[in-house]
Design brief:
The protein is mostly beta strands. The chain is built from two helices and 13 strands; from the N terminus they run ββββαβββββββββα.
């Protein structure tokens, strides 16, 4: 397993080692010791999985403190563009986003620390996204930044996004007051 730095402090690409043979393949997708060696000290308490049609955009979601969540995100079927927006006021990358193609073929994962909004767009039919969370979901702590906010300029690689009513009503970044 390789844990690769990104330009965003605390945000990492995780590249599992794949062992292939005539039976199929095996990979270790999480290892607490490997994460700790990279300075990532997190306990995961909840796993979530979503299935999305091609063109679905979900996000940009976050949980406010004290219910903030770190996430380890991967695609187990299909392909998605995964996006993390830095909401940490003191960060040099505040208000910037990082995007990565995650797919069942490339096996990459994205570790997103607390203090980021997260979203993704399904680029294939029946894309299955699985993610581990460091805190339990709390409805009263949820927040949403508008997925197509003009200030963030995120390219979702989707011409006609399919978006929930809740996500369409996300907060514009220029009006957002970060709790992080």
């Amino acid at each position: 397993m390789r844990i690769i730095d990104t330009p965003f402090k605390g945000l990492f690409i995780v590249q599992p080692t794949i062992f292939d043979d005539n039976r199929g393949s095996f990979s270790e997708v999480y290892n607490e010791r490997e994460f700790a060696a990279k300075g990532i000290h997190v306990s995961f308490v909840q796993d979530n999985q979503s299935v999305s049609r091609k063109g679905v955009v979900r996000g940009l979601h976050f949980q406010k403190p004290p219910h903030a969540q770190a996430k380890l995100v991967r695609v187990v079927q299909g392909t998605a563009i995964d996006v993390a927006v830095d909401l940490r006021k003191e960060s040099q990358t505040y208000g910037q986003h990082y995007a990565l193609i995650l797919s069942a073929d490339n096996n990459l994962q994205l570790f997103i620390p607390e203090g980021f909004a997260h979203g993704f767009a399904a680029l294939e039919e029946d894309t299955v996204l699985h993610y581990k969370c460091s805190n339990f979901y709390n409805k009263s702590a949820e927040g949403t930044i508008l997925f197509n906010d003009p200030q963030l300029k995120i390219n979702w690689f989707v011409e006609e996004p399919i978006v929930s009513a809740k996500d369409m009503e996300g907060e514009e970044f220029q009006n957002f007051i970060s709790p992080f």
